[in-house]
Amino acid sequence: MSEKIWLSSPHMGGTEQRFVTTAFETNWVAPLGSNVDGFEHDLEQFLQGSHVAALSSGTAALHLALILTGVGAGDEVICQSMTFSASANPIVYQGATPVFIDSEKDTWNMDPVLLEQAIKDRMAKGKKPKAIVPVHLYGMPAKMNEILAVAAKYEIPVIEDAAEALGSRYHNKACGTLGDFGVLSFNGNKIITTSGGGALTGKDQAAIAKSRFLASQARDPAPHYEHTHIGYNYRMSNICAGIGRGQMEVLAKRVEQRRSNYQHYLKTLGDLPGVTFVAEPSGSFSNRWLSTVLIDPAQSNGITREIIRLALDKHIIESRPLWKPMHLQPVFADAPAYVNGVSEQLFEYGLCLPSGSNLTTAQLEQTTNIIRTLWK
Ligand SMILES: *Cc1c(COP(=O)(O)O)cnc(C)c1O
Asked: Residues with Cβ < 8 Å from 176, sequence gap 6 or more?
């Protein structure tokens, strides 16, 4: 039996173990040390002008961003509906309510028109949203100029969920640097990984310094343990940060490899009736973290994304439906939502294809051959 083909698996570059070995040799096996400082520095170099705090996860980064934005019990926070649940969960950790916004068709991300309608409606109902959480889904930059213009008009801070978009650019600015805060993830399935980890980014150096303080149990300067704030244990381990430093050396290559996967799918499947791909709008550069397709059964002679998923699964090839929108999730059934049908249709028609930077040409060809055969 051939090896399983994964949706998106870790891909080491070679020098990660050297950084980890240094941590062992110097006994910095702790949530601080030279790898943590070095990884933050590497990310700051890459992001150009943002400050970075290395954390235990992207979810932790989102949570701290909400805390630093002042989101508390009873507040409302606007969140993209078409996303992974981790974009929305930390809103609930704070005792606040997510208000979900549907997607536009060009990038599959937060619809700026619907965003403004929702803000007006929430304000008319008596509550101004405390923050806006747009997402760059699968690495495709959201329409940030429009979103930021609405946010500025109503003076609402933006927490940019760039967990899937490290290496993506929007009008030549790195994703993760566009909002008041940015969130990155280095989970095992992301474009680079530290096994598990994340980062909070921002232009405000004092706010990022405060996130490091909150992430280290909020210990005030004193010889004993003194606390004036509620703290969290959210800092990144020096071992994980060592993996991150090695991964930063190959990030550009990983983006190239993922984009090349997308090109393979576009070239070999793009002519099939009912199959469409999402193109980069002008000014946008996607890291193509995951390659995704839409299958319209009305044009594909009844072939659905589920038929493709099962055909691939039979050959131990992993694929997954597009993320199920948050406003359709049972856990968020009571949350307000402003919808236009776009994300529901994406979920119905969309499939994420194997997208790892470590896929071989043979594995990509095997995958597309199985799919093409369904049309014969
Ligand atoms: C992965 C992901 C997160 C969470 O990051 P973790 O590091 O896994 O906690 C948040 N938002 C989106 C869109 C993600 O894909």
From this structure: 47, 50, 160, 162, 165, 166, 182, 183, 184, 201
